[in-house]
Design goal:
The protein contains twelve helices and 19 strands. It is α/β, with parallel strands linked by helices. The chain has four domains: 126 residues, Methylthiotransferase, N-terminal domain (Rossmann fold, 3-Layer(aba) Sandwich), CATH 3.40.50.12160; 115 residues, Transcription Regulator spoIIAA, CATH 3.30.750; 119 residues, Transcription Regulator spoIIAA; 55 residues, Beta Barrel (OB fold (Dihydrolipoamide Acetyltransferase, E2P)), CATH 2.40.50. It binds S-adenosyl-L-homocysteine, iron/sulfur cluster (SF4) and FE3-S4 cluster (F3S).
């Protein structure tokens, strides 16, 4: 009889979580499980959760509720809830009360031990609630099962010290802890040797403060990048996320002068009103952000800038919002991740007066996206008729596309998939709705 055991992981939230799920997959494979994309076939189901906004949390709660039926059909099913949501105070108890069928609830601080907890659950068949209050030491040499073929995630640091007034991350991910330069170099070297990844994505909540916790006066983000750029191999280095207050001119110069550094940079601004930025505890002004962006465009050729924006932060007036729209026009973002402010228990902003009514928030986000679409369309139209140096790849819908240096995607209409991974020159012929269509030049 075939007694293969299957795992199913569903990931919510940011890249940090996506990468954590690759570590979870590594641990489950080590235990002999094989992946299934169908929850109904699974012997173990893991939800790697996010609590950045209320919408994320309620969606996950509903999905956990759905597990009840699966557990009723298969009483040996193991269900695991981990990730940021569980790290909130009192959440593990609440989950167990609402969903008594759960097997394991585990926090972010001890996720690396999931493998042990599963083994012990299998022996004892008893609910395990293992959420630690304190961060554990960084675990090295983890078994990571990377899912992606184009890019590889590498943690360079964990946690956040910034305490932006709206944000729950510092409470659920703990304080900043940097991995050692040697360990990161070792990991990137081994990824480069595999020759599979065109991009190494360095992960941290605020990569610009990498190494500050070592207090050695030498280790910082640029120091690390310098070591990584010296590693042989045909790959680009990118990073997520960076905080504008710590984005040094040294870093701008470094990116500008190193070909290995990706030109796609995510630089969350959150608001274009200095008054709101102050209330958000972001510690920069809209003017400082704009002059940083000026410096980046002046020095980094092919720069493609993306950002995060929150609308409807407590006290945000129509005028504050219009300042955000002005900043958006000014910065020429290639894409914007816009969010409606969501009250998070335990954060300072949740107690601020002047919470903005939902209707107003909704109206502002709609206008922000409309502005983004208009600006994007203008930018794409300006590419028609021009030729770009690209790399051919298959996109998530299975189409052959060419990626320009600044991460624009052009659907190739005259090539075949055999050129995948190769460098090519592509002439943009037309813009179809939001899609650029182009031909590979022979
Ligand atoms: N460390 C990253 C952000 C992680 S959270 C950084 O600082 O860039 C990703 C994004 O979610 C944030 O940039 C912010 O725009 C948004 N966000 C965080 N808390 C939020 C809240 N309470 N309501 C709405 N959006 C929020
Ligand atoms: Fe949250 Fe701010 Fe830290 Fe980003 S920098 S994770 S927005 S507290
Ligand atoms: Fe969500 Fe945690 Fe990321 S709260 S956005 S998964 S750090």
């Amino acid at each position: 009889m075939d007694n293969t055991q299957f795992y199913f992981i569903e990931t919510f939230g940011c890249q940090m979580n996506v990468h954590d799920s690759e570590k979870i997959a590594g641990m489950l494979r080590d235990l002999g499980y094989v992946e299934t994309k169908d929850k109904n076939n699974a012997d173990i189901i893991v939800f790697n959760t996010c609590c950045i906004r209320e919408t994320a949390e309620s969606k996950i709660m509903a999905k956990i509720g759905d597990l009840k039926a699966l557990k009723a059909r298969n009483k040996n099913l193991i269900t695991v809830i981990c990730g940021c949501m569980t790290q909130q105070r009192g959440m593990a108890e609440l989950l167990k009360k609402r969903f008594p069928f759960l097997s394991i609830v585990i926090g972010t601080h001890n996720l690396d031990r999931l493998e042990e907890y599963i083994v012990s659950y299998k022996k004892q068949k008893k609910f395990q609630n293992i959420v630690w209050d304190k961060e554990q030491e960084i675990t090295e040499n983890q078994k990571i099962y990377r899912d992606s073929t184009n890019h590889a995630f590498v943690n360079i640091m964990y946690g956040c010290n910034n305490f932006c007034s709206y944000c729950i991350v510092p409470y659920v991910r703990g304080r900043e802890r940097s991995r050692s330069v040697d360990e990161i170099v070792k990991e990137v070297k081994s990824l480069a040797q595999q020759n599979r990844y065109s991009e190494i994505v360095l992960l941290g909540q605020n990569v610009n403060s990498y190494g500050q916790d070592f207090k050695d006066g030498v280790t910082n983000f640029v120091y690390l990048l310098d070591k990584l750029c010296k590693i042989q191999g045909d790959f680009k280095i990118s990073f997520m996320s960076s905080h504008p207050k710590d984005f040094s001119s040294e870093l701008v110069d470094f990116i500008a002068s190193h070909q290995k550094m990706s030109r796609a940079i995510h630089l969350p601004v959150q608001s274009g009103s200095s008054r709101i930025l102050k209330l958000m505890n972001r510690r920069y002004t809209a003017e400082a952000y704009k002059s940083l962006v000026d410096d980046m465009y002046a020095k980094i050729s092919g720069l493609s800038l993306t950002t995060d924006i929150i609308v409807g932060f407590p006290g945000e007036t129509e005028d504050d919002f219009l300042q955000t729209c002005d900043l958006v026009k000014y910065c020429k973002f290639s894409s914007i991740f816009g969010f409606v402010y969501s009250k998070r228990n335990g954060t300072p902003a949740a107690k601020f007066e002047n919470q903005v009514p939902y209707k107003v928030k909704k109206d502002r986000i709609t206008r922000l996206f409309a502005l983004e679409h208009q600006l994007q369309k203008e930018e794409l139209l300006s590419m028609v008729g021009k030729t770009f140096d690209c790399i051919a790849e298959i996109n998530d819908k299975g189409f052959l596309v060419a990626k320009t240096e600044n991460h624009k995607s052009i659907k190739i209409v005259n090539g075949n998939k055999s050129i995948c991974g190769e460098k090519c020159k592509v002439k943009v012929k037309a813009l179809d709705e939001k899609e650029l269509l182009g031909e590979v030049l022979k």
